[in-house]
Amino acid sequence: MNTDVTKDRHGQQVELSVVIPVFNEQDALAILFERLYSVMDGLGRSFEVLFVNDGSSDNSADILAQQFEKRTDVTRVISLSSNAGQHAALIAGFEHTRGEFIITLDADLQNPPEEIPAIVAEMDKGFDYVGSIRASRHDKAWRHVASRLMNTLREKITNIRMTDQGCMLRGYSREIALEIADSNESRTFIPALAYLYAARPTEITVAHEERVAGQSKYSLFKLIQLNFDLFTSFSSVPLQLISFTGIFVSIISFLFVCYLAYRRLFYGPEVEGVFTLFGITIFLMGLLLFSVGVLGEYIGRINGLVRKRKRFRVASVLEASEDVESPVGESKSSTTSE
Ligand code: UDP
Ligand code: MG
Fold it and tell me: By residue range, what is the domain housing residue 280?
């Protein structure tokens, strides 16, 4: 068996690994294979394409297995036992990669594979992380607005500086990818971690296309969760904001009480303004609930870390060295989380 993890079964150095998370993408895969493999073949570099089937319930697993049969030497398919989420799936992929450079890509062709050579060219220049900026976005309008808002907020409250946080067509050196996989973060945002670890990061502009088939796998709720992951993983500013708001409200309410005491002493008892008082109280209750919620987001993630539950479980691996699907009980599983 191959002992050097960066070599394929013929002992050849693998230069490029393309890691693609796949969750119910049965209608996109055929076009993806066609475009991706022709780009990779044309590069003239040794490569592997590593699909991570993130618990798909459609025909994606069968379609990936067929592709594995067709291009056994350069294709590997890792299947997770259930849907763990895009970023967990990428980490599963990182743990299995052999390449010196790792490129991540979405399966829905929103990231054109034809841009891969541009990423590789940057990595050849010695950058250890290549981020990407979408030239023009092809998503639903509400996603544009939400994304711009989140980008601005992230710039303000974390120390992660990246122009466009949404595009997953990116390049990572092997060291950075393994560092990310080793980080043992419960719920994380991979491009941000890469920025944190990279010594020589760069960004390039890439094309962005419409999803070729199917629907986005992100509901509004999942998107909010992902952004909470980003903020809680990279910033304590929300907690500090709560403290500052608490201090501010305390000062205001102290002044208000002094004012009321003054009126009570000099004007006698009053009952007017009861509804204003209601309004203020309800506002403060809302603020309190919001603060408890923010605290809860942090505590929930600590809870996930403490439980050390596996974030994902690799159920099977299809790869040329063994040519078999490993039984579920023997497969490797990794990174813990909720
Ligand atoms: N994906 C995944 N697991 C999930 C959600 C998404 O592996 O739980 C994959 C999906 O198949 C696609 C990529 O992550 O390859 C990006 O997902 P999607 O296109 O739905 O996100 P969007 O482009 O709408 O942000
Ligand atoms: Mg997409």
Answer: 237-307
Best residue for ligand 1 mutational test, from 217, 219, 226, 314 (most atoms within 8 Å of Cβ)? 217
Report CA(54)–ligand 1 centroid distance (Å).
Answer: 9
Inside any domain, residue 172: yes
Give the tokens for residue 338: 């909720």
> pTM of the prediction?
0.85
Separation between Cα atoms, residue 67 and residue 315, nearest integer Å: 19
Distance 253 CA to ligand 2 centre (A): 48
Written as tens digits, the pLDDT of the chain (338 aa) is 555 788 887 778 899 999 999 999 999 999 999 999 999 999 999 999 999 999 999 999 999 999 999 999 999 999 999 999 999 999 999 999 999 999 999 999 999 999 999 999 999 999 999 999 999 888 888 888 888 888 888 888 888 888 888 899 999 999 999 999 998 777 888 999 999 999 999 999 999 999 999 999 988 888 888 889 889 988 999 999 999 999 999 999 999 889 989 988 998 888 777 778 888 899 999 999 999 999 999 999 888 888 888 889 999 999 986 544 444 433 443 333 33
Residue of the nearest CA to atom 17 in ligand 1?
Answer: 217
- Which atom number of ligand 1 is nearest to the Cα of residue 107? 15
Count of beta carbons in the 10 Å neighbourhood of residue 268:
7
Residues 302 and 248 in one domain: yes
Q: Ligand 1 site: residues with CB under 6 angstroms?
A: 21-23, 25, 54, 83, 85-86, 89, 106-108, 110, 216-218
In a domain, 30, yes or no: yes
Which pairs count as long-range contacts for 38-42, CB under 8 Å and 24+ apart, including other chains? 39/113, 39/114, 39/116, 39/117, 40/16, 40/74, 40/113, 40/116
If asked whether residues 85 and 42 sit together in one domain, one would say yes
Q: CA gyration radius for the chain?
A: 25
The number of folded domains in the chain is 2
